[in-house]
Amino acid sequence: MTIDIHTHIMPENLPRWSHKFGYGGFIHLEHHKPGCARMMKDDDFFREIQANCWSPEVRMGEMDPQDVQVQVLSTIPVLFNYWAKDDDALDTSMFLNDHISEVVERYPKRFAGLATIPMQSAKHSVKELERCMSSLQMRGIEIGSNVNDLNLHEPQFYPIWEAAEALGACVFIHPWNMMGSGKMSRYWLPWLVGMPAETSRAICSMIFGGVFEKFPNLKVAFAHGGGSFPMTIGRIEHGYQVRPDLCAIDNQVNPRDYLGKFYLDTLVHDEKVLQYLIDLFGANRIAVGSDYPFPLGEDVAGQLVKQMPLDTQTKKMLLEGSALDWLGCDRSVFL
User: Fold this and answer.
1) Domains of the chain by range and CATH?
2) pLDDT digits (tens, 9 = 90+) for 33-77
3) Nearest to 88 by CA among 17, 28, 145
4) E-strand spans in the chain?
């Protein structure tokens, strides 16, 4: 089967959180014609979306012709609301998580769910993570590449890593709040340049900050093929070797030693790059990810894998094996 670990969903209707909480910055939807809605940030247009962004029935109607059996659902990063007040961000997280759980409950053979948590509050995050893993039967969490510009190695996030590890929750890290966005607004550069850099930022901060050493059983996957990290591992390793006084202050392990200890998705749009990732990380650490239903994603999830001249075992690992291992379940769950 083909399991797509990188897909986004949101409810068809969002509360006007700004009215409830008394301040702005939240996303709401304006349904302006059947099957289409505008995502609005207060009065500013953010993105146009279609029914495949909220309707599981529409999604399945698009999955079937593409021979995609399972989608792992996570929220759209602009809905993380890390900047909001702690209690308010918990409310929005719970609303989004309840929606994903309802979709999975209705179609358990077609979907698995990842929760969003209010990362600005470790206390609230752990509470919601525990609820989602126990009561909502989620598989894990999706989080951003930074939290209000704090990198993911910061000690304030340790309780979250500890809880995720103890609960067996997988972690999907997605770029957002891209560095330098204000200085490169033209040509879609925040998405083309900033996103790959954000993912590398997250990986490097977790490596150099010793997160993988402190929490060795944490199951982490990074979006977009690891961004720019795999292509710059030589530079990163060289920096570690020549300036340990700057790079190795919190963790003395060579960054290259972590290759194969976390997961990546396949969203690289290039056969040679995907082959490089397979050689570097191993097929057992790479899973199909399409970024459905957004334009920077793969039009047909798994198409790149299926068209490459790979042996049957490698293709099976990329299409389902790695995803199942990361999710912590057997394929029979979806049969």
Assistant:
1) 3-328 (3.20.20.140)
2) 999 999 999 999 999 999 999 999 999 999 999 999 999 999 999
3) 17
4) 3-8, 27-33, 36-41, 44-50, 70-74, 111-115, 140-144, 170-174, 219-222, 263-265, 286-287
